[in-house]
Design a protein that fits this description.
By secondary structure, the protein is an alpha+beta fold. It is 33% helix and 19% strand. The strands form 2 sheets. It has a 3-stranded antiparallel β-sheet, with helices on one face.
Length: 165
């Protein structure tokens, strides 16, 4: 018998919403996904950040290593991993692009897409939010991975242009 039921259902999405997943900043941020929420193919880990003073959740060793580069950067003010994207927006973007939206393979329920890192970078006069998706090079040959990247790219491009106006 499996340790956890990881199926995405309306009930599981509502539970995450009630827990405040994907909300907050700094030490109060709660990632949408924690390592126990998804099946791991490789090394998934947690590590305490000294900038945020909280435990971060990484779905790969590459994400973990990238996190260290953010921790050591003097310009990085906040690090939010597994940042949720609005499911209503990603569903609309996928439909407009003719791309199948990610869904749970068993329940067929649409999955809340996440961006690996949303980072606040700043100095004494200005802060900027940057979104970063981290994938191993060998995953970049996958058409499906590139389709999900495109949904994310359009999502963040629309967000940044909204903030720029």
């Amino acid at each position: 018998m499996a340790k956890r039921n990881r199926n995405v259902t309306p009930k599981s999405k509502e539970r995450r919403r009630k827990e405040g997943r994907g909300t907050g900043t700094g030490k109060d941020y709660k990632p949408e996904l924690r390592i126990q929420d998804v099946a791991s193919i490789g090394l998934a880990t947690r590590d305490r950040g000294w900038k945020t003073e909280r435990v971060h959740h990484f779905m790969s060793q590459l994400e973990w290593f990238y996190f260290y580069s953010l921790e050591w950067s003097p310009d990085v003010l906040d690090i939010r991993e597994q940042f949720p994207l609005s499911i209503e927006e990603t569903l609309a973007i996928a439909k407009r692009l003719g791309i199948r939206h990610p869904a749970d393979p068993k329940t067929k329920e649409p999955i809340v897409m996440t961006t690996d890192f949303v980072v606040t970078v700043g100095n004494m006069t200005q802060n900027t939010i940057v979104a970063r998706t981290i994938k191993y090079e060998n995953k970049l040959d996958s058409q499906r991975v590139m389709q999900k990247f495109e949904i994310e790219r359009v999502y963040w491009t629309s967000r940044m242009s909204i903030g720029a106006s």
